[in-house]
Amino acid sequence: MEDTPISALFAALLICLASSAFFSAAETAMMAINRYRLTGKVRQGHRAAVRTQNLLNETEKLLGVILLGNTIINTASATLATLITARLFAGNEFALGLATLTVAFAILVFSEATPKVIAATHPEPVAFFASGPLALLLRVFYPAVWIVNVIVDALLRVLRLRKRKDSNTALSPDELRLLVLESGRFMEKKHHTILLNLFELAKVTVDDVMTPRHQMEMVDLELPGDLLRQELFTSHHSRLPIFAGNPDNVLGILPARKLLSLSEADTDADAVRSLMRQPYFIPSGTPLFTQLQNFQENHRRMGLVVDEYGELLGLVTLEDILEQMIGEFTTHSPASGGQLARQPDGSLLLDGSTSLRDLNRKLKLAFPTSGPKTLNGLILEYFEDIPEAGTCMVIAGQRLEVVQTQDRSIRMVRLYPQ
């Protein structure tokens, strides 16, 4: 080594620092690359992606060759620095110590920190570039890598630490939802909203979206003939729940289109009985996703929600569930509540039966939905009484005023803008 020119030693030191930077960047890029995007490129036949995935499928060997190369090169860098210092400053211990610190600083900045930051910022191109040399080095140094891995396995057994045999990267529902949230800027807003709504279907129940019992349009078969025909032929709905005497005594569901086969004169209670289908009941608290599957399996589009005592609570349709995913798209009858009317002063006039979930979604509010499902229920729970018209309150940071009450419920509420 004494005959080696000093310039050659400097060149070797620079090569070592550059090689160390390569291994540092390769390690960071390989660990930081997006596995799902990588899988997509592999399916497209991208050669570098296939090579990268093959290396990642053998993570132990990949890390072994990277760490082996990095360790050897860093050791060589320190040795070369010592030789250069000895040649330039023979016997000067201070110069030798300063050279050691200088090399350590160079390795830290130029061979570790900088390449790792670059690789973490651009993992995909760095990983694809490094995959070729790493695959070649793995073949060349396979015996040494194998020996290192055997020793590591032995140490893990001594420490009684189990090594995972598979690289299970499956995402939990919460992790997948977070992934959709974070990737919102890469997809259309409507698609992003639909995906997020899908995750909510398992948490939202039929009680949250059903039409409450007092808003349901039902037909009583015990009505006189003229009134019965008027109820049937003036309905705004395509399916009508039919009961006899007591609304809890639901006999069936009548598809309104079947009335077209009858003349108005022939329409009576017996004719209606012959046309209606058996009612389909849904237990209260059923998650929307489960109910969507039940609708599909039972070939139904509408169900009646009942509590544990069998009392009728409301009605849920397939459209109600679909609107939770993609937003409103169906028309509403003139008698349906839940409409928002903006007033000249900027306030909103709300129906007391308006769903809290709908308000939160449409107006970006934060009303609690774990208890009452409607605005009327929320205010009644707040006061534990029926407030008089003109009563004001603040709930969830929103100022509300009771505008109209009727019987035992609140009919109209004014929401003041913040």
Write the layout of secondary structure elements.
Blueprint: H1 6-32, H2 35-43, H3 47-56, H4 59-88, H5 93-121, H6 123-140, H7 142-158, H8 173-182, H9 189-200, H10 206-209, E1 211-212, E2 219-220, H11 225-233, E3 239-244, E4 246-255, H12 269-275, E5 281-283, H13 288-298, E6 302-306, E7 312-317, H14 318-326, E8 340-342, E9 348-351, H15 356-363, H16 375-383, E10 392-395, E11 398-406, E12 409-416
Parallel strand pairs: 2-3, 5-6
Antiparallel strand pairs: 1-7, 3-4, 6-7, 8-9, 9-12, 10-11, 11-12
Helix pairs in contact: 1-4, 1-5, 1-6, 2-3, 3-6, 4-5, 4-6, 4-7, 5-6, 8-9
As residue ranges, the low-confidence spans are none
Shape type: elongated
Task: State the end-to-end CA separation.
Answer: 80 Å
Structural class: alpha+beta
Helical proportion, percent range? 40-55%
Membrane topology: Multi-pass membrane protein
Family: Belongs to the UPF0053 family.
Pfam families: CBS, CNNM, CorC_HlyC
Subcellular location: Cell membrane
Task: Name its key features.
418 residues, Uridine Diphospho-n-acetylenolpyruvylglucosamine Reductase, domain 3, 3 domains, 4-stranded mixed β-sheet
Write a structural description.
52% of the residues lie in helices and 15% in strands. The chain is of the alpha+beta class. It folds into three domains: 6-158, no CATH class; 206-326, Roll (CBS-domain); 340-416, Uridine Diphospho-n-acetylenolpyruvylglucosamine Reductase, domain 3 (2-Layer Sandwich). The termini are far apart.
